[in-house]
Specification:
Blueprint lengths: L4 H5 L19 H22 L6 H10 L4 H4 L4 H4 L3 H20 L6 H8 L5 H24 L6 H13 L3 H9 L8 H7 L2
Helix pairs in contact: 2-3, 2-8, 2-10, 3-8, 6-7, 8-9
Length: about 200
């Protein structure tokens, strides 16, 4: 029969995000995880270069790549539902833990330790905070892109996501918002003209 861990991970492309909202462009958790990995790396590099940090940027990338893997089994529970009340959040946390363990059980035993820290909240507290900020930043970018295409469905999501991100008080995230986020509103030609 073989081990199905990697085949199961490949199913991330089938799990859609933003299920409660009208999307002009659908997004799946595979795409989202890539975006979060790129952003987590950027936040780690900014932390190290500009704010005196010593974060392992590579570890942040790995944590980000696997951060939503449990959703292969649980689906993507929309934020308004997930955080509706503490009982739902606690139950979903338990469901995520079961999903993480089930995914780990799909690996040969000698590989489980290497993936356990990626699937089950590994990394330092600072690395986890940067990945969480990158996750919120990816959601904010999705909101900006939808709004730029005229989809007002994302007005409140943009506002609340940016507030949540700013409330984290991470200098690297604040830096990204000021220095890099505005370019997401530009067209391809406008972005290209900036680099000349």
């Amino acid at each position: 029969m073989g081990n199905s861990f990697f085949a199961m991970l490949s199913r991330m492309k089938h799990i859609s995000r933003w299920a409660l909202m009208r999307n002009l462009r659908t997004e799946n958790i595979c795409e989202h995880s890539y975006d979060v990995a790129v952003l987590a790396h950027a936040l780690a590099v900014l932390t190290n270069r500009r704010f005196g940090g010593t974060v392992d940027a590579g570890r942040c990338v790995l944590l980000a790549l696997y951060h939503d893997a449990p959703e292969i089994l649980t689906g993507d529970l929309p934020t308004p539902v997930k955080y509706y009340n503490p009982a739902i959040r606690q139950a979903y946390g338990q469901l995520e833990a079961v999903s993480q363990e089930k995914l780990l059980a799909m690996l040969p035993e000698d590989l489980r330790e290497d993936y356990g820290g990626l699937l089950c909240g590994g990394g330092t507290e600072e690395e986890r905070r940067l990945v969480k900020a990158a996750d919120k930043l990816a959601a904010l970018i999705k909101c900006v892109e939808e709004l730029e295409q005229g989809n007002r469905e994302f007005v409140q999501a943009r506002r609340s996501t940016e507030e949540a991100l700013r409330s984290m008080r991470l200098p690297a995230a604040d830096c990204f918002l000021e220095e890099f986020l505005p370019a997401y509103r530009l067209t391809l030609d406008e972005q290209g003209a900036q680099s000349v």
